[in-house]
Amino acid sequence: MKRHHVYLVVLFMSVVCQSAVAQKPVENAVFWEVSGNGLTKPSYLFGTFHLKGAHYVDSLTQVMDKFKSSSALVGELLIDSTLTMKMMSASIMKDTTLDKLLGADDYQKTAVWLKEVSGYDLKLFNTMNPMTIQIVLMSMVQQKYFPMNGPQDAPMDIYFQQEAKKSNKKLVGLETFDDQLKALFGQFTLKRQAEMLMEFVNEKDKAKDEIIAMNRHYREGNLMKLEELMAKQTYTEKEATVMLYDRNAKWMEQLPQLMKTQQTFVAVGALHLAGKMGLVSLLRKAGYTVKPLKTLL
Length: 297
Known about the structure:
Keywords: Signal. This is TraB/GumN family protein. It comes from Chryseolinea lacunae. The chain has helices spanning about 1-5, 10-15, 55-60, 60-70, 85-90, 100, 105-120, 130-145, 155-165, 175-185, 190-200, 205-220, 225-230, 235-250, 255-260, 280-285, and strands spanning about 30-35, 45-50, 70-75, 170-175, 265-270, 290. It is α/β, with parallel strands linked by helices. The chain has one domain (about 1-15, about 30-95, about 130-290). A 6-stranded mixed β-sheet has the order 4-3-5-2-1-6, with helices on both faces. The chain starts with a helix and ends in a 5-residue tail after the last strand.
């Protein structure tokens, strides 16, 4: 249970990566070189999969080579020891409980699936909002079919930041925890969260198949397939815009200056790269040359 809580903030970020709607595709890659437009050295853009770990990313030899040669690491937000408690606090419902919000039948369906994939009793999470329960279920399905390589295998976003600190790289977060909180919990009422949770639970076989497919497409570096898969999710276009594309636009206000001053390795969720409002397209529109790279040397 403790390990789950430690990584909950990273799993929280993964929900944002499921909100894409169909856009004009970019080339098939999750790793990119950014050059031109006044840059003296190229920078690099890597699409992470928040539920995969250090053991996996260590196998991506070209990704790690460019990461090691970069002077700065840029992530979605800086991950520190305070974030777990902030996330747990944000997930707590003040005026109701999960069993009351969902009703007896839906609560029981959710409890059965959680017990099946994790062994946990839903009563342990009864004060947590439905969005958090969906994140927990997603992470448990991921771990059932694609377990990390032991208790020391940190999620890749945490791993990059740990390694950057060890080598004294500059660390930059593109947004704060409060920014992410507003994009996720802030725009959804508890009723809407409950609706999305039950859509996920009622189609649990589909959810399992999609998580398996997501892992396959990510390993293949198939950004187009990832985009197609995520376009099938239940978020509205407005919700997706708040969670994904508005954030991309804000990040683009910071990235040019960061890349201008040093060779920068940018590691953000893979779906932030895709489509006409994704970072690859936005960087190209800003005048940069952005070319796909293989993840292996």
